[in-house]
């Protein structure tokens, strides 16, 4: 790898860029607790890129952790680079200012490593846009020694073939330990004068959680994959997820950055548990993030205290895939309550499971803490359908938990449901409204009032590395009819206190089409980006017609791709990428199909 010359754009950014954008606070850096090193004096520099706007990026805990870890390595610097909003992109392109980092305002191309966090399939056009704005070739095969090493991690690394030709190296699994080992390898390679190709080969050979797409080839037979082979026989054909075994002492930033622009989540976020004891058959994270590991109550409280003192945030959020399954949750809540009671700091408990009335006692312990809302991921409205998706929640437990929450002072609940599940009936869809309204009226037992319930309906996207990954998505017309059924049923019941919010159907179809796609989708994603696709997760930016044309350009029907079913013996585009054993997942699928009958 060549030694890089650092280009600092501070003067140009201040004079030609910031005065012309609507929200300069997104781009100025300099926040409380940011870490800034002299890039020119560091042996290795890393641009940590998040392919969304500042407010979203600053709410992503994974980025905060990696930022803290890398900056603790001697002679290595990490700086943040986020996707510029539409107005800012226009200014950058018109004035030919390269995309830059927040800390030093260094050009993206100045960094040795450009690393992306991939959290959703619909962020891919922003990845392309950021590379292009940084003056970096978007295809890995076109990059030379003078361009950074482009790597990516996050949940989408486990199903990364649709962007495999854009990224030099993927880190599979958990990043805390893996990123340190990878950086040390790159640092050694740079010192000894290895080329990028030589460094990539060494990483691919040394780490079973590293995937270098350029070292592997696919052969196709129509829509199916015929073979998947390494270009060098000695390389592995299957990869594993990196796992942090000592989660108790895993990195946890104690001085998180306080955003200038209001972030989506302005709170102290503490990860209390990793992994999930449930195996919901639609959930990629529950199958890919294993095993279950917990932090001690003392460690969590110590982290929360330190972060609060460093930021002044007024909410502590306890993060995990299933917070209610933390074995000492009541003790933890009691300890946090004792410290934060007189500081007017609230607790946030996202997406709770309520098996065996787990939150009944919890709600009581939270009675004197400021309420930040109670969210329950119910997913399916009937017990029969919950059995099919392997979420054995009983209605009686759900009602007991909601009543306990009302008695503890909560006045509103937020519920998550999915439509389009295998074995779903029209009555199951209508039952979403009935169940929600029953939960709203349940509050009358407590104070005579009907509760406000916010219900979010998402459309099932069959995910890689899950039992439902073999199944096609329901047709678009099915989701449109489901939405109509729900709204009609709400009117019939006069359920005015139940407010329904629906995910955009076309976006869910696109997510399904891309998420289970193979490497040939790189062409489609590039074509959509070239046509103007940006910020596809944002309603005001998402343009489904651009995507339809991009798919059509390469002879692919987007809805057919979303609805595609895979054969059990078929080579799946993601099966080499660090997920559970195929036979194990198929066993789950068979159990679900037996329950459907």
Structural class: alpha/beta
**Strand tally:** 17
User: Shape from CA axes?
Assistant: globular
- Uncertain spans: none
- In percent, how helical is the residue content? 25-40%
Oligomeric grouping of the chains: single chain
In this structure, how is the largest beta sheet organized?
Answer: 7 strands, parallel
Work out the radius of gyration. Answer: 24 Å
Q: CATH superfamily of the largest domain, called what?
A: tm_1862 like domain
Characterise the protein shown here:
With 597 residues, the protein is of the alpha/beta class. It is built from 21 helices and 17 strands. Strands 9-12-13-14-15-16-17 form a 7-stranded parallel β-sheet, with helices on one face. A 6-stranded mixed β-sheet has the order 2-1-3-4-5-6, covered by helices on one side. Strands 7-8 form a two-stranded antiparallel sheet. Strand 13, helix 11 (358-365) and strand 14 form a beta-alpha-beta unit. The longest helix is centred in the last third of the chain and has 18 residues, at 476-493. The protein is globular, with a radius of gyration of 24 Å. The N and C termini lie far apart (58 Å).
């Amino acid at each position: 790898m060549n030694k890089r010359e650092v280009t600092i754009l501070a003067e140009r950014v201040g004079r030609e860029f910031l005065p012309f954008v609507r929200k300069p606070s997104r781009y100025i850096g300099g926040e409380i607790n940011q870490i800034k090193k002299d890039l020119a004096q560091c042996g290795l520099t890393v641009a940590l890129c998040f392919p969304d706007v500042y407010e979203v990026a600053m709410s992503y805990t994974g980025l905060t952790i990696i930022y803290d870890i890398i900056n603790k390595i001697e002679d290595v610097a990490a700086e943040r680079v986020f996707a510029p909003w539409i107005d800012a992109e226009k200014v950058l392109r018109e004035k030919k200012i390269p995309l830059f980092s927040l800390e030093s305002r260094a050009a993206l191309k100045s960094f040795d490593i450009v690393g992306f966090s991939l959290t959703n399939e619909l962020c891919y056009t922003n990845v392309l846009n950021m590379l292009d704005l940084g003056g970096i070739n978007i295809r890995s095969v076109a990059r030379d020694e003078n361009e950074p090493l482009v790597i990516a991690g996050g949940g989408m690394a486990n199903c990364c073939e649709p962007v495999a030709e854009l990224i030099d190296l993927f880190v599979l699994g958990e990043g805390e330990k893996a990123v340190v080992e990878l950086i040390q390898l790159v640092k050694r390679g740079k010192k000894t004068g290895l080329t990028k190709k030589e460094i990539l080969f060494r990483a691919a050979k040394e780490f079973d959680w590293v995937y270098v797409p350029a070292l592997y080839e696919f052969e196709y037979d129509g829509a199916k994959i015929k073979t998947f082979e390494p270009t060098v026989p000695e390389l592995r054909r299957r990869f594993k997820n990196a796992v942090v075994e000592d989660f108790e002492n895993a990195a946890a930033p104690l001085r998180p950055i306080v955003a200038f622009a209001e972030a989506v989540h302005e709170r102290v976020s503490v990860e209390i548990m990793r992994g999930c004891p449930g195996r919901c058959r639609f959930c990629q994270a529950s199958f890919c993030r294993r095993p279950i590991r917990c932090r001690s109550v003392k460690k969590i409280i110590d982290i929360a205290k330190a972060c609060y003192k460093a930021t002044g945030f007024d909410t502590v959020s306890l993060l995990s895939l299933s917070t209610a399954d933390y074995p000492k949750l009541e003790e933890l809540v009691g300890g946090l309550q004792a410290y934060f009671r007189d500081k007017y700091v609230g607790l946030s408990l996202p997406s709770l499971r309520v098996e065996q009335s787990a939150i009944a006692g919890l709600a009581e312990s939270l009675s004197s803490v400021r309420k930040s809302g109670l969210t329950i991921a119910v997913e399916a409205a009937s017990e029969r359908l919950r059995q099919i998706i392997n979420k054995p929640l009983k209605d009686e437990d759900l009602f007991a938990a909601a009543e306990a929450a009302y008695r503890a002072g909560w006045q509103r609940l937020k519920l998550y449901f999915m439509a389009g599940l295998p074995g779903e009936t029209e009555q199951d869809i209508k039952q979403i409204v009935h169940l929600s309204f029953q939960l709203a009226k349940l509050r009358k037992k407590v104070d005579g009032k009907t509760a406000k319930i916010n219900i979010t309906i998402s459309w099932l996207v069959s995910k890689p590395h899950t039992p439902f990954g073999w199944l096609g998505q329901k047709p678009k017309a099915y989701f449109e009819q489901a939405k109509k059924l729900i709204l009609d049923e709400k009117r019939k019941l006069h359920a005015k206190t139940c407010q329904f919010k629906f995910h955009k159907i076309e976006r869910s179809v696109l997510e399904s089409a891309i998420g289970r796609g193979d490497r040939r989708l790189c062409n489609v994603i590039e074509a959509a980006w070239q046509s103007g696709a940006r910020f596809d997760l944002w309603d005001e930016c998402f343009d489904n017609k651009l995507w339809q044309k991009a798919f059509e350009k390469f002879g692919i029907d987007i809805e057919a791709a979303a609805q595609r079913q895979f054969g059990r013996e078929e080579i799946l585009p993601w099966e080499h990428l660090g997920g559970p054993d195929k036979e194990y997942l198929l066993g789950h699928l068979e159990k679900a199909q037996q329950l459907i009958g």
